[in-house]
Amino acid sequence: MGGNKIPASETPSIASLLMAQDPARLQVLMTTLALANTESQALLTEVLTGSGPLGTVSQGDPMGAADAFSKVGMSLAQNPMALMQANMDLMKGWMGLWQEMVTESITAEPKPEKDKRFSDPEWQTNPGFKFIRKAYDLNARWMMSLADRAPGLDEPIHLRAKFFMQLLTDSLAPTNYLGTNPQALKAFIESGGESVLAGIRMAREDVRKGGGKLHITQTDETPFKLGENVATAPGQVVFRNDLIELIQYAPSQATVYSKPLLIFPPWINKFYILDLQEKNSMIRWLVVRGLTVFVVSWRSADGVTKDYTWDDYAKKGIYAAVEAALQASGAKSLNAVGYCIGGTLLTSTLGHMAATGYNKIDSATFFASQADFELAGDLKVFTDGPGRDYVYGIIENHGGIMPGKDMYETFNWLRPIDLVWRYVIDQYMLGKEPRPFDLLYWNADQTNIPGPVHKRYLSECYAENRLARGEYTVLGEKIDMANIQIPVMLQASKDDHIVPFESVYRSAKRFGGDTTFILSGSGHIAGVVNHPDAKKYQHWTNPGVAESSANNWLGAATETPGSWWPTWWAWLKPKSGRKVKAVEPKDMGLGAAPGTYVKVRLEDIKLPPQ
């Protein structure tokens, strides 16, 4: 299925391909098409009933999707005017669609396509496919409007209904079905049916790999090996306990700034997103700036750490890493970074430090990290009553551990068009083999999480927002974020679907010291890991966090092309101390970077008995 890409204007139509077939071959193709379409429907059913949050409806609805839909229906039924208006709008939409199809010339110049799912020219030039696409858009918009039209819904029900309706409308897109996907139909005809047969084989292999549950392979992982062509920045593991390995990276010049930089990545994924390749490595970029960089590598939860708590992560993670980094570098204090949940842990521990007079962290930067969860977005669906109970059940069914494969699936279903249906189409319908991609290799290299840590994060941070309200405790101390007086910078990404930038902005307003907020283009990963040499995206700056809302802040902000890293460095450099002689990290007998914890794969971990 490879080869050079044919320009859209030269792509043969389905009609021309069919006309080129002799009768006998055409009959075989039509028979195989009917069988393949049945297989496609079965695959879709398996995806919906066996994978993802929408699939829980067939399992007794532990996520409360059917309950949310029912409450929307009851609200509309009890408000006839709202229901009548919804139906009137749908009727008007259909009348407008019929009129448009009658009067619009099908030979008109194709319009630029914003939705990449419908980029095949057939969606604009073939009247049948054009109608299918427009009808889908009309029905999807109407379905998505129902929760907003239903009065009196509690906010958790409203959010749940919107989330699951979005999953449903995405799943019903005509591109997800072989019989209504022109690109897949053309591949089927051109390959004599081989594209679908290859796709079915890959789907079966993914089901086998998932132990009976569809686990989509997004990339070819075979070319990648940690420490050889991924995570190659030179350094040494200078400290290890049961929870972390601390990596110190080798300097690249004779002098460095006296204050090290210590990075706490999330434990939901592995740290080497910050060191994928030389060309996009944040760690290498920081070392070249003259910083002594330390990074924490978290241990994937197993029988040893399954009962570790948030306090264990604060004590054996944050505090232990700070002390070890200072001892290794000879510095008296350092600057810290927290990424995603690593930033939430850092914030809570900084609150403990403020309460106890511990003053060895001079500044903190937060990448895509929340402390105020009031506007935390779609993930709140997993932290209300039904969602939280569902996750707790997964933990109990896996010996007290939140399995990495379930976290992987959850995050994929937050962006199903890009992270689920794209691969269903490309691989299972077009028969394309997955291609090597370092970012997707990292994304699939998941970690397990101790049950107590994950439960507290969902309940006390997401559901109850205790950290922002001053009701969260760390190591016996109640945390007040206003007491965190060190300078902080919070970075957010404009299109982040995991940590919405509005949520990060609210978090920024909770700190008590000099606070800077910066917004980058793109999403949760690409918005953070955007090397300046790539010359991609943009970022926005606006001094202070005095605006009433994130959108008001953005409205008054200055946009600058390219990566936000140089702006961050301009903020961090004056806080990094004087220049001193660089020292190579000591060989402590613990091994070279990237260490051993990062190399443990999920399949290597034997989960505790249930």
From TrEMBL:
One Gene Ontology MF term: acyltransferase activity
Domain Poly-beta-hydroxybutyrate polymerase N-terminal as annotated: residue spans: 114-286
Highest taxon above the source species: Bacteria
InterPro entries for this protein: AB_hydrolase_fold, PHA/PHB_synthase, PHA_synth_I, PhaC_N
GO biological process, one term: poly-hydroxybutyrate biosynthetic process
Pfam family, one: PhaC_N
Intracellular or extracellular location(s): Cytoplasm
Cellular component aspect of the GO annotation: cytoplasm
Keyword terms of this UniProt record: Acyltransferase, Cytoplasm, Transferase
SUPFAM superfamilies in the record: alpha/beta-Hydrolases
Protein name per the record: PHA/PHB synthase family protein
Species the sequence originates in: Hyphomonas hirschiana VP5
